[in-house]
Amino acid sequence: MSHAIKILAIYKFVDQPDFESLKTPLAEFCCARGIKGTLLVAPEGINGTVAGAPEAIDALVGWLNDGNIFGGRFRGAEIKYSFAESQPFYRMKVRLKPEIVTLRAPEANPGRQVGTYVDPRDWNDLIDQDDVVVIDTRNDYEVALGTFRNAKDPHTASFTEFKDYVSKTLDPKKHKKVAMFCTGGIRCEKASSYMLAQGFEEVFHLKGGILNYLEQVPEDKSLWDGECFVFDERVSVRHGLEIGDAQLCRACRQPLTPADRDREEFIEGVQCHHCAGEENAARRQAAAERQRQIELAAARGEAHIGEDVRKAAEQRRLANKARREADRTRNRKG
């Protein structure tokens, strides 16, 4: 794969009552180097994913690690890199938020306490234990694409609902060991802190999240089934962080598997089985108009805004699929 674009996922929980003063310098530094994506800044820390030329991303990380910048508060942030052939984001945004991960539970303070980090290479042994409750802390549409074997799905539409799931389903007296996971690790920082505050004794979470696991653990030793949803135009990734087969419905933004796209309700760019009901008629109409504009632009030999990024991601997905099929054919012959 070409390494034309380097993608940085970063977060750190750190108390910063002056968080509002960070917006302008962060935006100016990124924009001056062609970096695009979103950074969330809140009193509890920083979180976001941005992408740009490798030298630009390296410069951003070096700047944030500089002890003279923002008092060195972002040194040691959790950082994850991946690569793409083209820019997966359209613009650069720095947003001021009440929380970098919205839970609305003041007692959840990762700066004060968090659960026990588990290295991806030790994760399988932990979740294979009979007395460990394994919980997927992500939302329902993410879980639908893939999860760890025997993991419990809280069926949440948003992370704020996790509190209700804990209060209704889990008991500190019964569930002595809890292991949690999420995409990149940040939601589990907040969730583990919350559960410790609720009296749970042993709370574990996968360090670096699913993405770290998929990168480090070989597929033949993996307990992961399916694909992992990511919040950019790649939509989903597999082991080795290869782009997966999922695509977004352009009307409701739900991730769709190939089987979902084979359903009779699916109309390219207009609707899927999630949004085919009459209550979504207005949204479908807007999506249909957008699709019409895309097709008109294609007829003129032009790219509709955002379509060049989407098509690049689709081309990478098809190339990865072809490579996997070729690998399977070689393995069968071998």
Largest sheet report = 5 strands, mixed
Q: Helices and strands, in N-to-C order?
A: EHEEHEEEHEHEHEHEHEEEEEHHH
Q: What's the arrangement of strands in the largest beta sheet?
A: 4-1-3-2-5
Weakly predicted, low-confidence segments: none
Assign a percent range to the helix content: 25-40%
Tell me the overall shape. globular
Structural class: alpha/beta
Query: How many β strands by DSSP?
Result: 15
Strand portion, in percent?
A: 15-25%
Q: How many helices in DSSP terms?
A: 10
Task: Give the integer mean of the pLDDT values.
Answer: 88
Radius of gyration: 21 Å
EC number: 1.14.-.-
Pfam families: Rhodanese (PF00581), UPF0176_N (PF17773)
Family: Belongs to the TrhO family.
Domain Rhodanese: 128-222
Account of the 3D structure:
The strands form 5 sheets. The protein has a 5-stranded mixed β-sheet with strand order 4-1-3-2-5. A 4-stranded parallel β-sheet has the order 6-10-9-7. The protein starts with a strand and ends with a helix. The protein is globular. A hairpin with a 6-residue loop joins strand 14 and strand 15. By secondary structure, it is of the alpha/beta class. The chain has 10 helices and 15 strands. The mean pLDDT is 88. Helices cover 34% and strands 20% of the residues. The protein has helices at residues 23-32, 54-65, 120-127, 140-143, 162-169, 186-197, 209-216, 258-261, 281-299, 307-333, and strands at residues 5-13, 36-42, 45-52, 78-84, 92-96, 116-118, 132-136, 146-148, 177-181, 202-206, 224-226, 228-229, 236-237, 247-248, 255-256. The longest helix is centred in the C-terminal third of the chain and has 27 residues, at 307-333.
